[in-house]
Amino acid sequence: MSITEILIISLIKIVLVLGITLITVAYLVYFERKIAAWAQNRIGPNRVGWQGILQPFADVFKLLLKEDIVPERANKIVHAIAPMIALFVAFTTYAVIPIGPNVNIFGYDISLVVADVNMGILYVLALTSLGVYAITFAGWSSGSKYSLLGGIRSSAQMISYEISMGFSIGGVLLLAESLRPIDIVNSQAGLWNAIVQPIGFITFVVSAFAETNRLPFDLPEAEPELVGGFHTEYSSMKFAGFFLAEYANMIIASAMIVTLYLGGWHLPFEQSLGLSGTWLIVAQIASFFVKMGAMLFFFIWVRWSIPRFRYDQLMNLGWKVMFPLSLINIIWVAVIIMLTN
C-alpha cells in the first residue's frame, strides 16, 4: 500500500474507534444506572425516551447548559488543563488494542487495530501512568483542601497498584515472549492466560479497579468524607471531561483484561466449532466485545455490591497482599516455562 492509502485507512480507524468509544461511554453511564437500579430494586432512568434510553443525551445537554464555575483561588490554567489530560490519556490508549484478526477488505489486508506496534503494552502502561497527573493537577489547582486530599490520595493509590499491575503483566509477557498485543492474543489460541496464571489474572483485575478509581477503591472521590474529591470544584463540561475519562478508562481496562488474560478475540473451543472464513472472523470480533461487555458488567456489579475500603485497608491490600501475590505469579510462570521447555 502507498503512504496515502495507509494514512487514509489509519484515519478511518481513528474515526471509528473514537465514534464507537464515545457512544459506548454514553450508554455505559445509562447501563450503570440501570444495573444499579436492578441491584437496589429500583427502576432507574425511565422518563427520557423508551425505557429512558435517551437519558445520556439529556445528561450531556444538561452539562452543556451548566455554568462553568472556576474558584477564585484556583490556578486557572492548570485547572483547565487537568480534564484535558484525563481525556487525552483515556482516548489515546485504545490505539494499540486489537479487536480481531486481520481482515481482507476491497483487496487490502487490514489489521483491526489502529497502531500495531511492537511495544504496545509498554505504550499502554506509560499512558495510564500519566492519568495520575490529571487527578493530582485537578486537586492541587482547585484551591480546596478536599480536592487536594483527593489528588494526594490518588497519587499514592496509583503508585501502589501500578507496581502490582506491572508485575502481573510480567507473567503474560514471559509466556508470550513479546510486548506486541497481537502476539499476546495469538499466544492464547490454545489456553487462556487466566487459566494458566489465575493469580496474575486476579491481581491485574483488582489493580484495574484501583487504577480506574472505581469502588471499592474510589478513595480520591469518597464523597462522604471529601465532598466529591479531586473534582469537587469542577462543573459543566470540565466535570463531564473527568466523568467521560472514568468510563473510557473502564472500557480500556476491560479491553486490556480481555487481551492479556481472556484470549482476546479467540473463542472458547475455537477449533471444534467448525467455523471458517468470514463467519469465523465475525464470531471472533463478536467474542472480543462479548468478553469486554462481561467485564464492564463486572465493574458495575462490584461497585454496587462492595462498600468502600478505608484508606489504610486500601494501602495494606496494595503493599501486603497484591504486591507479594504478583511476585509469586511471576515465579509460578517462570517455573512453568522452565518445566515445559
Automatic annotation (TrEMBL):
Looking up InterPro entries in the UniProt record yields: NADH_UbQ_OxRdtase_su1/FPO (IPR001694), NADH_UbQ_OxRdtase_su1_CS (IPR018086)
Q: Which GO terms describe its cellular component?
A: plasma membrane
* Membrane topology of the entry: Multi-pass membrane protein
Question: What molecular functions are annotated in GO for this chain?
Answer: NADH dehydrogenase activity; oxidoreductase activity, acting on NAD(P)H, quinone or similar compound as acceptor; quinone binding
Q: Catalytic activity, per the record?
A: a quinone + NADH + 5 H(+)(in) = a quinol + NAD(+) + 4 H(+)(out)
Q: Which key words tag this protein in UniProt?
A: Cell inner membrane, Cell membrane, Membrane, NAD, Quinone, Translocase, Transmembrane, Transmembrane helix, Ubiquinone
The cellular location(s) given in this protein's UniProt record come to: Cell inner membrane; Cell membrane; Membrane
GO terms for biological process? aerobic respiration
Membrane-traversing stretches? 6-30, 77-100, 120-140, 161-179, 247-267, 279-301, 321-340
**E.C. number, please?**
7.1.1.-
NAD among the record's keywords?
yes
The principal location of this protein is membrane
Cited PANTHER family = NADH DEHYDROGENASE SUBUNIT 1 (PTHR11432), NADH-UBIQUINONE OXIDOREDUCTASE CHAIN 1 (PTHR11432:SF3)
Q: What does the record note on quaternary structure?
A: NDH-1 is composed of 14 different subunits. Subunits NuoA, H, J, K, L, M, N constitute the membrane sector of the complex.
Report the NCBIfam families cross-referenced here: PRK06076.1-2
Function, as annotated, reads: NDH-1 shuttles electrons from NADH, via FMN and iron-sulfur (Fe-S) centers, to quinones in the respiratory chain. The immediate electron acceptor for the enzyme in this species is believed to be ubiquinone. Couples the redox reaction to proton translocation (for every two electrons transferred, four hydrogen ions are translocated across the cytoplasmic membrane), and thus conserves the redox energy in a proton gradient. This subunit may bind ubiquinone.
Q: Which family does it belong to?
A: Belongs to the complex I subunit 1 family.
Q: What is this protein called?
A: NADH-quinone oxidoreductase subunit H
Organism for this UniProt entry: Ignavibacterium album (strain DSM 19864 / JCM 16511 / NBRC 101810 / Mat9-16)
Q: Which gene encodes it?
A: nuoH
